[in-house]
Write a structure and sequence with these properties.
Elements (H helix, E strand, L loop, with lengths): L4 E6 L8 E5 L2 E5 L2 H8 L6 E7 L7 H10 L3 E7 L5 H13 L6 E5 L7 H15 L3 E12 L2 E6 L1 H19 L3 H16 L5 H19 L2 H20 L6 H17 L17 H16 L3 H19 L10 H21 L1
Helix pairs in contact: 3-4, 5-6, 5-9, 6-7, 7-8, 8-9, 10-11, 11-12
């Protein structure tokens, strides 16, 4: 039967001796780091999956199971093959993912995960979190700090770097920055949880969210306005003395590479759409943006942008008011002219 709350751990052929484990001011003595972890995290009612390759630590499983029972957990031993090939790795990965159902909550202890196991755990969790909505509540590792003393350290942030990698890769490949903004919002909430408040970070994330939504919708004027706001917010954030994470720096670097080329050159930080004037600079900026969407293989967006660009070009060539070019009535007149030209060309050709 698949369980919803799982502590995943491993057994190895190491010597297990009673150790005093500490974490966050809590202390527990045990031969097994996952038992100490389960006790200090109060995981009573959870189910432990204990993976071990053939012959590795099997003699310790009975003692481990008893200690888990004392801590209020059930336990299940799962034997895995000794991986010597890519096929073996895939078999172990398949076995692990079969043990975890959708929407489960998972905590991972890698203290005695030897050889290939940490990498297989990483691959399995990447798949489970991304496609099965599994909630990863923590990854922990026990580190010896003295004779009979060890500390349990949370290293979940290292796994979260893989999510940042995928989000940044998605932004670079498809132009969709929304997954990256979602992670930034999560990071902002984490800073707030640790009582680190920064108006610069909040303004930057909010501006980036507006820009990512405008990009997803293919709105050239809004993209220009929000790019200008993000550019200003990034400058303010870089001047801030509030500490930020390395992941926020990654995101900041990604957005910095794109916003300057799209931003509308205007000193008005709170500029509205109606304030944007139609001139050759604006037409050039929009055409450059359209080329970017073409590079991202977003053909429907490119077609839409080119249609609106030609409407704007007609308005500019007809010397229409540079302040009134975005209203429906003004653009409708240019669209009518283009439709007339299309009809005439069809008759000729």
């Amino acid at each position: 039967m698949l369980r919803k709350q799982l502590l995943i751990t491993s057994l190895s052929d190491s010597d297990y001796t009673e150790t005093e484990y500490s974490m966050g001011g809590n202390v527990h003595r045990s031969k097994f780091p996952p038992v100490a972890l389960a006790t200090m995290l109060q995981l009573r009612g959870w189910h432990a999956l204990v993976f071990a390759s053939k012959g590795a630590g099997h003699e310790h499983y009975a003692d481990l199971q008893k200690e888990f029972e004392c801590a209020g957990l059930t336990a299940e031993f799962i034997e895995i093959s000794v991986a010597r090939s890519q096929s073996d790795h895939m078999s172990i990965l398949d076995l692990m993912t079969d043990q975890i159902c959708d929407n489960s909550e998972v905590i991972l202890d890698i203290t005695y995960s030897q050889g290939h196991l940490p990498f297989i755990y990483l691959a399995a969790l990447s798949y489970l979190v991304g496609l099965r909505a599994v909630q990863l509540s923590g990854i922990y590792h026990g580190v010896t700090v003295g004779a009979g003393l060890a500390e349990l350290i949370e290293i979940t942030a290292l796994f979260e770097l893989t999510q940042w990698y995928h989000a940044i890769a998605t932004a670079k490949q498809s132009g969709d920055h929304r997954p990256l903004v979602t992670l930034m919002e999560k990071q902002r909430r984490e800073l707030f949880r640790h009582k680190i408040e920064s108006a610069e970070v909040s303004n930057t994330v909010s501006s980036m969210k507006s820009l990512s939504e405008a990009l997803a919708s293919g709105l050239p004027v809004e993209i220009g306005i929000y790019s200008a706001r993000v550019s200003q917010a990034l400058m303010n954030m870089e001047k801030s003395t509030v500490p930020t994470s390395i992941t926020l720096k990654f995101a900041r670097e990604r957005f910095r590479k794109v916003v300057d080329q799209w931003a509308i050159a205007n000193d008005l930080h709170k500029m509205q759409k109606k304030d944007v004037r139609l001139d050759w600079n604006e037409l050039s900026r929009q055409l450059h943006l359209t080329e970017w969407f073409l590079q991202k293989q977003q053909q429907p967006t490119v077609a839409m942008l080119l249609r609106e660009w030609f409407v704007s070009l007609v308005l500019h060539l007809r010397a229409e008011s540079a302040d009134d070019w975005l209203t429906h009535g003004t653009r409708a007149s240019a669209e009518k002219l283009l439709n007339s030209l299309e009809t005439a060309c069809r008759k000729i050709y």
